[in-house]
Amino acid sequence: MSNIKFLQMNTDGITYVYNKKYYPIVKKICAWWEKTTKIGLEYAYYDKMVIMDVNNYLAVKSGFDETKDPKDYIKKKGLFETQKPFHKDPSSLVIPKSLEQYFINNLTPKDFIIDEKHSIFDFCNGVKKKSNFKLHLIREIGGVEVLTEQQKVTRYIITKGGDDSGALVKDFDDGRRVSVEAEKLVMPLNTITEPKASLYPIDLNHYINETEKIINLIENKE
User: Fold this and answer.
1) Nearest Cα to 204, choosing from 109, 137, 91?
2) What are the start-end ranges of the H helices in the chain?
3) Rounded to the nearest 10 degrees, what angle do helices 94-105 and 204-219 cross at?
4) What is the pTM of this model?
5) pLDDT confidence tier of residue 67, bands split at 50, 70 and 90
6) What is the per-residue pLDDT across 147-192, written as a single tens digit (0 to 9) for each?
7) Contact predicate 186/166, CB 8 Å
C-alpha cells in the first residue's frame, strides 16, 4: 500500500504511520491478516515516537497529558529506560532521564542535568572484574604513580578531579592495560552515605555531552 511508512518491526510487532484517511484500508488489511493466520492483533496508537533503532526507542501513547500516569502512557526501551534491574547495568541513569525530558518536555540536557535535586546514584557507572584482569585506580601522588586495586564490582562517577579520583583501568594477565573510561577521571563510590548529587565533584559536562551525542544521532538520522 502506498503512503504508509514503516518505522520499526520485529518478530512480534510492526509500527507504522499513515494518513488517517487510509484507516479503513489499514483495518481491512489487518482483518485479512488475522483471518489468514488465525492470530488476533493488538493495537496501540502513539502521539510521538523517538527511535534510535528497533531496540532503543521512546513512545508516547495517544491521550497522554500531565494528569495521566506516565507508566501507563510512556514506553521506554534500551537507552531510553530510566529504571533498570542490576543485571541490565543501570549506569548513568541521568542520561535516559534527560533524554525523556528533552523529547517530551523540551528541557535541554544542561537544564535537566545541573538540577541539584538529582541523586548521586543517577550518575554512577559500574564495572565488574573478570578472572583475566584486575581493576586498578591509578593516581599520581607526589609525582609517583600509585595503583589501588578495586573490588570485584566497582561503582564510580565521572569526576572533575580530587584526591580520591584517578584513571580506572583493566590490567590484564597478558600485560595489556585498557581504560574503563578513556581520558576521563573517575571516583570510586562503593559506599554511599549521602545520596545528594550536588555534594560530589561530578563532571556534569560529561553527562551533558553524552546525552547531546545521542540526541544528535537521533535528530540527524536520514
Assistant:
1) 109
2) 23-37, 70-73, 94-105, 109-113, 204-219
3) 50
4) 0.88
5) confident
6) 999 999 999 999 998 889 999 999 999 999 999 999 999 999 999 9
7) yes
User: Closest Cα partner for 186 from 199, 171, 203?
Assistant: 203
Q: What is the dihedral of CA 8, 12, 16, 20, to 10 degrees?
A: -170
Kindly report the backbone phi and psi dihedral angles of residue 132, in degrees, each rounded to the nearest multiple of 5, phi listed first: -100, 10
Which residues touch 111 (CB under 8 Å, ≥6 apart)? none
Max CA separation in the chain (angstroms): 77
Q: What pLDDT is attached to residue 2?
A: 63
* Rounded Cα gap, residues 72 and 35, in angstroms: 30
Q: For residues 183 and 86, what is the distance between their CA atoms, to the nearest angstrom?
A: 26
Report in angstroms the alpha-carbon separations of 148 from 28, 96, 119, 134: 66, 31, 27, 10
